[in-house]
């Protein structure tokens, strides 16, 4: 139970970090080449300036689901630690 809780606590955060930094690399490459990053379509173009759209707005199920899984993992980890001690 403790191992499952720790996995649920750590893995969703790592997945969100991976997705965020992967997209950040794409945006940085796009801006370095003189383009403008379209956050909604996830493409680089040079036709116009695009507004910033946060990851939470574009993929709310991914962000909220990851955070809920992390909270569930925390609760399972606490329960696993409590059961081992008694």
Q: How does this structure look, described?
A:
With 86 residues, the protein is mainly α. It is built from three helices and two strands. Helix 1 packs antiparallel against helix 3. The longest helix is centred in the N-terminal third of the chain and has 31 residues, at 2-32. The two termini are 15 Å apart.
Task: Summarize the helices and strands and which ones pair or pack.
Blueprint: H1 2-32, E1 36-38, E2 43-45, H2 55-58, H3 60-85
Antiparallel strand pairs: 1-2
Helix pairs in contact: 1-3
Transmembrane segments: 7-27, 61-82
Keywords: Membrane, Transmembrane, Transmembrane helix
In short:
The chain is mainly α. It contains three helices and two strands, in the order H-E-E-H-H. The chain has one domain.
Low-confidence stretches: none
Largest sheet: spatial strand order: 1-2
Q: Shape from CA axes?
A: elongated
Care to count the β-strands? 2
> How much β-strand is present in the residues?
5-15%
Structural class: mainly alpha
User: How many strands, what sense, and barrel or not for the largest sheet?
Assistant: 2 strands, antiparallel
Topology order in helix (H) and strand (E) letters = HEEHH
In angstroms, what separates the terminal alpha carbons? 15 Å
- The total count of helices amounts to 3
Keywords: Membrane, Transmembrane, Transmembrane helix
Transmembrane segments: 7-27, 61-82
